[in-house]
Design brief:
235 residues, Alpha-Beta Plaits, single chain, MgtC/SapB/SrpB/YhiD_fam, two-stranded antiparallel sheet, 7 helices, alpha+beta, 57% helix, 4-stranded antiparallel β-sheet, cell membrane, MgtC-like_C
Length: 235
């Protein structure tokens, strides 16, 4: 029995080292030692259930506590940096390492090794697949972007410019959000008309054409537009 338990711990250690090496080479927060300790510790906890003779239910209960505890550990490696979340993949790797350790502790060597292979494939092969997907042209992405079109014109022609903008919206695949007007500081007799709209980035040329047409109006002194952060389209 002692040899069998030692083999289980050795399997968990080896699987943890295999997963941890990949994380360490990428200089992640949870690297070789952390991943190995999580896998080995999970194995030890399950081994405790085996040694106490509580049966399958006891081992299953201990495994549930291991998953719960690793959740807190995973939360420690997730960070927020300038509005973006980092470390989720490393936290998921910790979670999977705990599962590998639990399987090893329960004596399921085949699934433990298979799980290790799956984790390594996910962190290497799928990593490259993700990069290839992210490198695809934005025209293929399911995104919408908010644009602001700003026109400066004579105050007397404000209504005409607003009408021209509204007509352009109906003739192009543009999603009209708002249309506002305000006085131009330091330039009496001039108005600034701002149109906010949403559209797919592949239709940006439509916005450029609309801005070009408006710039040809005699009363218009300037036309500009800016794009804001893209967001996924709602399903």
């Amino acid at each position: 029995m002692t040899l069998e338990l030692f083999l289980r711990l050795l399997t968990a250690f080896a699987c943890g080292v295999a997963i941890g090496l990949e994380r360490q080479m990428r200089q992640r927060n949870a690297g070789l030692r952390t991943i190995t300790l999580v896998a080995s510790g999970s194995c030890l906890f399950v081994t405790l259930g085996v040694l106490t003779g509580n049966g399958v239910s006891g081992v299953t209960q201990i495994a549930a506590y291991v998953v719960f505890g690793v959740g807190f550990l995973g939360g420690g490696v997730i960070m927020r940096d300038k509005g973006s979340i980092q470390g989720i993949n490393t936290a998921a790797t910790l979670w999977c390492s705990a599962a590998v350790g639990v399987l090893s502790g329960a004596g399921h060597y085949g699934p433990a090794i298979a799980g290790t292979v799956i984790v390594l494939l996910a962190n290497t092969v799928l990593r490259e697949v993700s990069r290839m997907i992210n490198a695809t042209p934005v025209s293929n992405a399911d995104l919408v972007r908010e644009y602001v079109l700003t026109i400066v014109c004579r105050e007397a022609d404000e209504v005409h410019i607003r009408t021209a903008i509204s007509n352009s919206m109906y003739s192009a695949p543009l999603s009209f959000q708002s249309l506002t007007s305000e006085d131009v500081d330091g330039d009496p007799g001039r108005m600034r008309v701002a149109a906010t709209l949403k559209l797919h980035p592949k239709y940006q040329s439509k916005l450029e054409q609309m801005a070009s047409r408006l710039s040809m109006e005699k009363s218009v002194s300037s036309v500009s537009w800016s794009a804001r952060e893209a967001e996924p389209t709602p399903e």
